[in-house]
Each structure stands twice: as C-alpha cells, then as structure tokens.
Amino acid sequence: MTFLPTLKQLQYLAALHIHGHFGRAAEACFVTQSTLSAGLRELETLLGVQLVERNRRVVRFTPLGERVVAKAYDVLREADALAGLTRASARPLTGELRLGVIPTIAPYLLPRVLPALRQAYPELKLYLREAMSHAACEALARGQLDAVLLALPWDCGAVETMALFDDAFFLVFHPRDRRDPPPFVSPDSIHDTDLLLLEDGHCLKDQALAACGRPELRADPGHRGTSLVTLVQMVAGRLGQTLVPKMALDGGILEDTGLIARPLEGDAARTIALAWRSGSPRAEEFRLLGAGLREPGTARGNALPEQ
Fold it and tell me: Could you give the CA distance from residue 111 to residue 67 in angstroms, rounded to a whole number?
C-alpha cells in the first residue's frame, strides 16, 4: 500500500517555503511550531528524503526540496479548484474569498465600494491582503489568493482579467511652481529634475510614465516615495511634482495641502482590473465580484466592458 502526503503536510511545507521561518509558518497555518515541525518530519520520513536543512539561523530548502515544494503548490492549487467547484455551484459570493489589492488602489477604492458589496452579498467573507503587484500575482499563482485587484498593464502570469474602469493620471504640483497652469498639462513639459516617483517595485511608476508617453523619464533616486501620501507631502514641501491617479484625488489625498492637480493631455490612464487564475471554476463568481467593485457613476473614469 502506497502512503501519500496529506494536504496538511503540503500546506506546512508551502508555508515554510513562503515565510522561511518555522514560527511564522506555524502562525500562518494556525498551529503550534512543534505541530508544524512534526508534520514536516513525517513528510520527509514518508518520502524518504530530506527537504529542509535546519539550523539555528536559517531555513534552507534542499535542491530536491525546492522541486517538491513546487509540486506542492500545484497540488494545493488543484485542491483549491476542487473545493471551488462546490462553492461555484452554491449561491454566488458566499463563504470565503481571498482578495489581493495593490497599495495604490486599496485605500482609495475599497472604502467606496465595500459597503455596497457587503449589502449585496452579506454572506461573503472577504479577506483582504494588500501587496504590491508582483507579490500579489505570486500569491495568486500559488493558490494563496483567489483573485487580485490590480492595475494594467502588468504581467500577472496565467490569469484571466476583467477590466473595470480607466483611472486617469494627473500632474500634482505646488501653486508657486507653476504660475497660471493651463487646464491640461502637456507631458512634454515634465522634466526629470522636478519629477517625484514611487520606489522601484511599484507598478504605478512605470504605468504613469508609459501612459503619458514619457517612459524615458527618470526621477532623482534620492527623491522617491514609498507611497502616494509620501509623494504628496514631498510636493507640498516643494521638492518637485508628481503623477497621481484620479482615484487617489477622489479619495481626498490632496485635502488641506493647497496643491494643484491638472489632467494630462491625451489618454494618460491606467486600467483597474480584477484577475484570477485561468480556468478557475469560480470565474463567473469573480465576474460578479468585479461588477461589485465598479464604483457607480463615471466620476472616477470610464467603466470598461467585461472581457
């Protein structure tokens, strides 16, 4: 008789791979560290190989351990898809749903749309995780998230996407730095020496430059922000000007700053979209979620047809 690894053992292995620490992995699995360690030792005994090198300082997966954990992610995704078949056949948007949201969307869109979503689907248990695009897409691929709310263009792997609406970019500047600003700002008038951008790793930085047709612009590395709020405060301190999406402006990010925002000439915008794994049995459910995440009205930009 062949004994196979259990899903619980594979979950322990994946958690240790993600967190790189037995204590944090145990917390993520809601078990004690001794329970997780025992489960992993049982898995190694069952397979007859060492998967993890243990010492007091670091946790290091063996080469074979890396191959095994990659397969473990596949098995866990398929197990989640199996459970999704039953969830999809029940009433839509009931039970648990793990949604990843990038930082340049979460604080500005969610407070506006979640109350209506809760009212429409009171039995939905929505678990939110804020993460940058690359981390959110990795978590989606590994099965840690069910869907991701992000901005396009972005390569999120083997996913289906539902475009929700366009989110236009505005140039934000101090009133003393641009006298008599025109109703629309030409992207050609933006100079590297004045431009403040987010740190590398934030998709908004490249999307904003590409949307305004100036991908070659490079901000001063010493003047980069960790968030849109930080960038706005830097502009208020007359350190330069920055590009901010309309979503953040509508969310009140310039309130009490005295700063001015002007739209860019042309169609400078990012596309807000919902993404989920290709072939997911919950695709129709995610489309319902996407419809609920579209804010009513057109103040934020143009709603896009479902794709």
Answer: 41
d(CA 229, CA 205): 14
DSSP string covering 231-251 = HHHHHHTTS-EEEEEHHHHHT
User: Which residues, 6 or more positions from 167, have their beta carbon under 8 angstroms from its beta carbon?
Assistant: 151, 245, 246, 247, 269, 270, 271, 272, 300, 301
Tokens of 285: 């459910």
Contacts of 5 (CB under 8 A, 6+ apart): 43, 46, 47, 72
**CA angle 194-171-226, nearest 5°?**
70
- As a whole number of angstroms, the distance between CA 150 and CA 179 comes to 35
H or E element, residue 50: none
Average pLDDT over residues 73-79: 82
- Please tell me the distance from the alpha carbon of residue 157 to that of residue 52, in angstroms, as a whole number: 28
* Confidence band for 295, pLDDT divided at 50, 70 and 90: low
Does pTM surpass 0.90? Answer: no
Q: How far apart are the first and last CA of the chain?
A: 48
At position 103, the amino acid (one-letter code) is P
What is the overall mean pLDDT for the chain? Answer: 85
pLDDT at 250 over 80: yes
In the predicted model, is pLDDT for residue 223 greater than 90? Answer: no
- Domains of the chain, start order: 7-86 (1.10.10.10), 95-307 (3.40.190.290)
